[in-house]
Design goal:
Elements (H helix, E strand, L loop, with lengths): L1 E5 L4 H12 L3 E3 L11 H11 L3 E4 L13 H22 L2 E7 L22 H17 L4 E5 L2 E2 L6 H11 L2 E5 L3 E2 L2 E2 H12 L5 E4 L6 E2 H12 L10 E5 L13 E2 L4 H7 L6 H11 L5
Parallel strand pairs: 1-2, 1-3, 3-4, 4-5, 5-10, 6-9, 7-12, 8-13
Antiparallel strand pairs: 8-11
Helix pairs in contact: 1-6, 2-3, 3-4, 5-7, 7-9
Length: about 290
């Protein structure tokens, strides 16, 4: 396989690069500094030069709160950039995989969300990602594979796990919201799932996140449990659950953001990894064996 990967320096991109190299596939993974996905001619030109049979777009503007201010940039990257990547796939006849998000949903239900559920993004980030999905489908129809994931964490990048580890080593008390429910997803697991899907004949939208549902508070408690032996001896940390109303953010978040992954399980013939095993794998890689 000959893969053109956009967004190779991000959390997911980093894990994809490792695995694509292990699989000995040909890989072109331009850095953000060398290829801005907003630049249509440049994206199409790189694709024409490298003649991939698969383009994966893991590049995105993922700063959910900042997107509320930087509306134009969010849409340029998440809508126009995604459309440019899809156009490159169309012009080179290659397969296309787009990574999208649970934030295309409003999250006001209480049952895992299926692929065909009504979308209702609450903020600019979700809206821009949804528009990206639509542009891709306009160009490539059901041939494009759109993989929606959630609450990603991995060794390379900024994420909730790394933020908590920093707070645990510097603060005696850490307050975390306990009324938003998520499926924390390890980027390493997602990279494996994406590459498995890449070798199958499938398209359309697929939900892919680790198994299980917890609040951010419960997720933080699990991080603390595994990381505690590595904290300084006299470091005590008290975790305090708080409601969202006590932690206002520029962007509203979905309350219940758990996606139904049965379509993925049926395709892969296995259930997704549990969120806790994903967390253990991530923490093990960065020196917290638990
Ligand atoms: N993170 C999450 O919790 C989460 C949840 C659900 C879905 N997702 C989706 O999953 C995918 C991967 O997320 P991630 O967490 O790996 O994201 P990430 O760590 O933020 O990585 C995204 C990468 O895209 C790059 N990028 C931004 N603008 C670009 C541009 N104009 N041209 C080229 N590259 C550009 C970023 O570079 P800079 O860092 O230099 O800006 C970064 O390296 C994204 O599609 C995201 O929307 C993420």
């Amino acid at each position: 396989m000959n893969i053109l990967l956009l967004g190779s320096e991000g959390q997911l991109g980093f894990e994809l690069v490792k695995r694509i190299r292990d699989l000995n596939f040909a890989l072109t993974a331009p850095l953000m500094a060398d290829l801005d996905i907003v630049n249509r001619e440049a994206v199409v030109s790189v694709a024409k030069q490298t003649e991939p049979n698969l383009i994966i777009n893991a590049a995105a503007y993922t700063a959910v709160d900042q997107a509320e201010e930087k509306v134009e940039v969010a849409f340029q990257v998440n809508r126009d950039g995604a459309a440019n990547a899809a156009l490159a796939a169309s012009e080179t006849g290659s397969r296309f995989i787009q990574i999208s998000t649970d934030y295309v949903f409003g999250g006001d239900g209480c049952e895992p969300i299926k692929e065909d559920a009504e979308t209702r993004p609450l903020g600019v980030y979700g809206k821009s990602k949804l528009e990206g999905e639509r542009e891709i489908q306009k160009l490539l129809g059901q041939q494009a594979l759109i993989v929606r994931t959630s609450a990603l964490h991995g060794q390379n990048g900024h994420n909730f796990v790394h933020t908590m580890l920093k707070l645990f080593s510097t603060r005696p008390q850490v307050r975390v919201v306990d009324d938003q429910i998520i499926s924390p997803t390890w980027a390493g697991w997602l990279a494996d799932a994406v590459l498995d899907l890449a070798r199958m004949d499938c398209g359309g939208i697929i939900h892919a996140c680790c198994d299980g549902a917890v609040s951010w508070y419960e997720f933080a408690a699990a991080i603390l449990e595994i990381a505690r032996p590595a904290l300084k001896e006299n470091q005590s940390v008290e975790l305090i659950p708080i409601p969202t109303s006590e932690y206002p953010t520029p962007a509203r978040r979905p309350q219940y953001s758990v996606m139904d992954t049965s379509k993925l399980s049926n395709l892969l013939g296995r259930k997704p990894m549990s969120w806790k095993d994903g967390l253990r794998a991530h923490l093990g890689e960065i020196g917290y064996p638990g």
